[in-house]
Amino acid sequence: MQTQARLVGRARPPCMATQVSAMRASCARPLHPMHTSQLAHRGPQRCQRGRGGRAMHIIPASQPYKTPEYQSKCMLVHELLSAKEASGKTFSAIAQELGLTNMYTAQLFYNQAQLKPSTEEALRRVVPALSDDNIAAMRRCPMRSFDPNIVQEPHIYRLTEAVMHYGEAIKAIMNEELGDGIMSAIDMYSDVKIIKGVNGEDRVCVTLNGKFLPHVEQLESNNTAHKVAPKEGQK
After folding, report:
1. What is the pLDDT of residue 70?
2. What percentage of residues in the chain have a pLDDT greater than 90?
3. Which residue out of 184, 203, 220, 232 is catalytically annotated?
4. Which residues have CB under 8 Å from 195's CB, separation 6+?
5. 161 is an active site residue
6. Catalytic: 201?
């Protein structure tokens, strides 16, 4: 969908307070601080010159955070994180009681993973502020997504930079050891641990333990899409 825009002579881009006020006006509940801060990073406003060389800022008339789907997810995440905060427990503490990794546990509260029936009872006990509506929403298959502007957050940018910087070497080692393939992000176990360095400094250890998926040779004899299923009564 083509984004509409309006020109405002010598206007300044909308500030964070303006964007947050607009978001709050359209939502029934206040935003969690994480989502409030994200609204300050909607990307740089482009600028062009109008008549007489005057600066003309292009301010998008529609923003991704104004869509009903995005608002709905933001409000759900706000409620889930508020319930977690009310419990006084960290993601790692909750994860230990649930028997999950701390990364997967955090993903549940950010609506990036589905709550399984086997974990539901324990989660209700560990985080009692979660409502029946919250649990019902967590049971549904989530719309996994992310705001493209999230990369502007320094920590997330640095993680992205690290993967890009080491990516070729990681791929080369995987190919040497396992052949042609990729690491799954679906059949994956991930966690974050804080460890100590040799000088006693805090260090962050991020583990991505993904299943290796080899690329297949596409033999026509194995292409079941071209095989016609026999009719009933035929062999």
Report:
1. 82
2. 62
3. 184
4. 202, 203, 204, 205
5. yes
6. no
